[in-house]
Amino acid sequence: xxxxxxxxxxxxxxxxxxxxxxxxxxxxxxxxxxxxxxxxxxxxxxxxxxxxxxxxxxxxxxxxxxxxxxxxxxxxxxxxxxxxxxxxxxxxxxxxxxxxxxxxxxxxxxxxxxxxxxxxxxxxxxxxxxxxxxxxxxxxxxxxxxxxxxxxxxxxxxxxxxxxxxxxxxxxxxxxxxxxxxxxxxxxxxxxxxxxxxxxxxxxxxxxxxxxxxxxxxxxxxxxxxxxxxxxxxxxxxxxxxxxxxxxxxxxxxxxxxxxxxxxxxxxxxxxxxxxxxxxxxxxx
Amino acid sequence: xxxxxxxxxxxxxxxxxxxxxxxxxxxxxxxxxxxxxxxxxxxxxxxxxxxxxxxxxxxxxxxxxxxxxxxxxxxxxxxxxxxxxxxxxxxxxxxxxxxxxxxxxxxxxxxxxxxxxxxxxxxxxxxxxxxxxxxxxxxxxxxxxxxxxxxxxxxxxxxxxxxxxxxxxxxxxxxxxxxxxxxxxxxxxxxxxxxxxxxxxxxxxxxxxxxxxxxxxxxxxxxxxxxxxxxxxxxxxxxxxxxxxxxxxxxxxxxxxxxxxxxxxxxxxxxxxxxxxxxxxxxxxxxxxxxxxxxxxxxxxxxxxxxxxxxxxxxxxxxxxxxxxxxxxxxxxxxxxxxxxxxxxxxxxxxxxxxxxx
Amino acid sequence: xxxxxxxxxxxxxxxxxxxxxxxxxxxxxxxxxxxxxxxxxxxxxxxxxxxxxxxxxxxxxxxxxxxxxxxxxxxxxxxxxxxxxxxxxxxxxxxxxxxxxxxxxxxxxxxxxxxxxxxxxxxxxxxxxxxxxxxxxxxxxxxxxxx
Amino acid sequence: xxxxxxxxxxxxxxxxxxxxxxxxxxxxxxxxxxxxxxxxxxxxxxxxxxxxxxxxxxxxxxxxxxxxxxxxxxxxxxxxxxxxxxxxxxxxxxxxxxxxxxxxxxxxxxxxxxxxxxxxxxxxxxxx
Amino acid sequence: xxxxxxxxxxxxxxxxxxxxxxxxxxxxxxxxxxxxxxxxxxxxxxxxxxxxxxxxxxxxxxxxxxxxxxxxxxxxxxxxxxxxxxxxxxxxxxxxxxxxxxxxxxxxxxxxxxxxxxxxxxxxxxxxxxxxxxxxxxxxxxxxxxxxxxxxxxxxxxxxxxxxxxxxxxxxxxxxxxxxxxxxxxxxxxxxxxxxxxxxxxxxxxxxxxxxxxxxxxxxxxxxxxxxxxxxxxxxxxxxxxxxxxxxxxxxxxxxxxxxxxxxxxxxxxxxxxxxxxxxxxxxxxxxxxxxxxxxxxxxxxxxxxxxxxxxxxxxxxxxxxxxxxxxxxxxxxxxxxxxxxxxxxxxxxxxxxxxxxxxxxxxxxxxxxxxxxxxxxxxxxxxxxxxxxxxxxxxxxxxxxxxxxxxxxxxxxxxxxxxxxxxxxxxxxxxxxxxxxxxxxxxxxxxxxxxxxxxxxxxxxxxxxxxxxxxxxxxxxxxxxxxxxxxxxxxxxxxxxxxxxxxxxxxxxxxxxxxxxxxxxxxxxxxxxxxxxxxxxxxxxxxxxxxxxxxxxxxxxxxxxxxxxxxxxxxxxxxxxxxxxxxxxxxxxxxxxxxxxxxxxxxxxxxxxxxxxxxxxxxxxxxxxxxxxxxxxxxxxxxxxxxxxx
Amino acid sequence: xxxxxxxxxxxxxxxxxxxxxxxxxxxxxxxxxxxxxxxxxxxxxxxxxxxxxxxxxxxxxxxxxxxxxxxxxxxxxxxxxxxxxxxxxxxxxxxxxxxxxxxxxxxxxxxxxxxxxxxxxxxxx
Lengths: 285, 358, 147, 128, 647, 125
What we know:
heterohexamer; B: three-stranded antiparallel β-sheet; three-stranded antiparallel β-sheet; 8 strands; globular; D: alpha+beta; Alpha-Beta Plaits; 5 strands
């Protein structure tokens, strides 16, 4: 059982530190991406400027349900991060996070705008693509550690990556989708131009878009947290693994075109399930 | 089956220009696409009534900013033919140099936009970065980056010094090397091929029947290029049209990629063979009669029909731009594609709406 | 609380998201606007992002002559932008109709349809001039209250 | 078919110098003969009105009586025609572009119409 | 006391049915239904304190129960045979005939009839089912009262056929209660067949050609299940010498060869639960009036199948059969979820989803660990409540908009704010934490994590489930900012059941840790009692409203705390949002300024075009016909594997 | 000096075009010229292996012209354009934008006509 102090710490870190960290990472990401494209790029703090500006803009809505959905997305993302820092059940964290995804979709669908709706449908397809892969990665972790709890992973003697290398790849596959990076920036792209405008984000504006951005900061932290678990034995190892993974994501983002969702579903399932199967069988055999 | 009906344009992030497509999709497969134009229509052909034939050079140059130089050249050639003016050799070569530089910058621009259409941002930036060198050449030699205003009836307005020629040569070397370095990414990358190969197929028979022009036609295996007409100084340059047989977006991309390099080569050839001489001849008299003249724009065959009536103002100035010819093939290509392929295919004809609608 | 409000206000000038609408331009201004985004000019240094969606945009960059068809589109887009917002007109055509002022289907400059905050002359203006225009627009953007 | 042929390019970008020009902190020297802001050296102007007639955009008005040279800089297309046709070369393009403006502008220049050359100028105009 | 409760739970509905059928006055019939429902609810609640117990009756109202059941059994089979003859259906004739012969053989030659009593066992498992049948079932029956009025009004019937309808509806409640309480396999068989007959009667209620055809198909497939069940019974009698369910479970592990009858029982259960390849009857059953679909074909009757598997599960712990059952269930879960994606008919989505969830429950039964059993029970409870709610919502919506197509429900919130909101909550309780269904799924996934093929299918299936639910919830809610929403007036008997089910779904989820302690822990103890070799331990400990184990933790109460606080703030956000400027939707700048509807744009030829939005049904990726074909083939192979594996 | 053209009539136009199509000619475009108060010149341009062929059709104003979009679908765009700009009507247009290809309702005239302004509504009928 967690001590009260630990609980409070997790709460504070999860609610307040995580989005700041997430924003910084997003800023760094934009900076590195710019450098990769031979540009100077925005300041590291740019995501915060963006959010602050959006918060100060006029409230413009198609219906109030949109505002509610954006808000639920934020709460779900924050809750999942808090649960993560409380070293709770991974599967549960993941399901709580799915609440956000579902409400984002519902919020986008609540507007009869074709771009928003197509974005929502694509977002659902993305959920459909990454969710099984993530569940299977978690199952693999369970097979390896005997528990879904994060605390169980920290109890490990040696890094999980050594035993679950293929599942780590699968995780990377799934997280590229979640991070909205090319080739999977299908339902809504960060800033690139897209045939569906900005997909799920199209009809959100001003403060409500800011809420979604903040929620995305939380998600970035959750995603990188998941990655860090694969080298849970040393703090340096964690940092190195997270940094390398994120760099790889940025690199992939910059050397591939956006694919179609049909390709995404079939390829992610084909590759992801095969890798999972091999890794899981090698664990259980 | 439930259908989604959506307006694609006039304002749309993937469309640099306003065009509207009413798309009907099922599960993101396009079942119907109906275009609507008129968002850029100015009616500038009509300006020939109130501007004299010399002023019209500046106006037709602004039909389209990306191929402005070639519009002006085509117009000037028409007037010169009508009035029986023989342009000095040096002017002809200079016209080729600037028009091919224009083609290079237009194709680089297109390659970037095309990359953007399938979401390859880094490639977009890369091509546009390279393009800036060509823009610098434009700016340094003509006084403006985009609308160069170097043509006039009877010749050209500016000259290139020997020093400038050397500098252009050096700059083009860099451009060529950088473009070549992107060949594998543009034409051989897995993700790019997945998004372009077999997408928006137009057979050569279809292309001919629908009146396609330029790289769209050549991408369907018909090797027809107006530069074969040997206008300006093309009669003294080595030139073979480039064509690819498949008729898909990839082929059209490959045609333009190769043409970029080819144009750089043509600029070099023209610079090497540049004769000394006058830049322009004095034009006397007033245009009278009818003339049809054609040149190759970056987007394809450009046709001017000019009719003079013996006054300073033309009777009729009719401009048939390549995109105008490529819209019917586009409408035929769209059904059956995925929604995500729509920008790719729309871009693959290199639409220039301001050309189309004038 | 005041600190937050100040941060929001100061952020406004650091994060202008722009939308570009080609309102019947010859492409000259459009490609120069796009060129601003590319590595050589890279306006993202100033936090400028080309969003392509009026609902996310702070600055509307308009090029080209207004005609009868696109004036409605222009008004629609302007209406969909949340306050505060600024409009930057670029190029001779956007400013006054330019060389096409007297063409049959031309209404005139952008300011015949929506209020314009910054005018960038040129045919087409250089990317540097467009950056200047955005900067001028930004000063007005920062001054505008949440109305 | 290759996977990630773009990698060398982006890695090169990452480690080499960025290509961004630091405008507006450093302003590039304009190329010679660039067609920037249109400028009238009003002292030299003879108010012949050639520029006004030849301008494709018809943005120049010349009032010979009052010695006014008026140009709508927002309609000027910087084509250089007026500069070319000006008999006294009083018109020229500066290298730098015309600064941006917050409201409508007009260039209105007042000079002294040359009395002596008035007839010549009128003759010029008639010849056209 | 036991006997009174049992009387109310089992016999009263039959009496009420007779009353419904006989009394022609509508008010009386409604009163009978409401009162019966209320009594059932009370009785089932009173039963909570009594379990576990065993009881047996030799006679009822002076008549020998056992022989009466026997007689009824033969009559029932005879009636089915008659129906086969009436519909000229060879399959039904053969199946009913075969069952008649086998039953006769069993009764006459293989059994000694000294114990002429009927034994009932009430344990937590059957209690759970009784509670669902009595409470959810009664609510559905009450909702049916206004529904059927509308229904008949819509059909322009001159003579009401409601007496018949309500009679069968109420009969089903009694039958189901009896089915889950009986300890006698033969009695189970009788009630099992009776549910098939109810189903036949209610599917064919409207008398259209389609309804008749589908009811015959249900009868035909149901008879297959009956035959499999009867054959299983014959084998058990032959091998173990007993037809008492508790005996069988106890004896089965020691008699390793008893797996074939277990497999046959499983097949019977699969038929009843409409698992692939038998799902077609349930899909066909959707032509029936919606209360039928809600009661029989989602919350209660189809649960008879999973109940049977769960009941028998202790009898095949750690056998290959168990593995196959798990595989089979997981496969159905995945396959029917895939099929649901391609549907736009709301009732068909619900039907496929029901099959899919039942598959998940069967998979849990097959995994056969205490955690999986707990998952199965949670799933049964929450599925019944949420699915009943959704069915009733669809029924209500259908009567208003005269369509079952979810594409016609875009923006339903504007027209039917109450029902649409309830439906959205219903959907959310199906897929999201901290609600019970998700908790059940969480337990299922955690307990299946080490089983590679099963976990893969569960992972895929659960994602697909999310897809087809979320898009439905989304499209219901599209509405403009101000005004436009018309208040909805519902009859009390429509509104209260919906609200009760909705509240139930949420409240039960909140109470799940206590449900776990009260029902599931004793249930696992019972399993241990029945199968001493197993020595299961309760998988989770509950503390502070959290379910915890070494393998994972589900903090129900804390999550609900977040939910409640979040909701409170969320409502403020909603209120705050009312002050926002109303925007028009983004239509690439082409929105029409003259058209009446705000979602029109100016299309080609300057004509206003109304935008249309549609879901993706992935029909090119997953055409229903083709997928069904593949699924059925695979399922038949799996089922064969199961039976052969039982040998 | 006029360009070399082959004169056709309304009746022979479609047949001539069909003949060119069968011979493998590609349609380039059509041009409408406002000749005087009463007549338009319609010039159809075709291309085959860089050679051009022009058909000239002189038509009175106000009378409809047979559309060749049935032969060459691609012609629908230019015929619509001419319809917009000159008020000339085409019979059997494959895709008829009804004077709204480029122009909105605000423009009530046919802007490209030099000689007299044809009311669009009259022309459309």
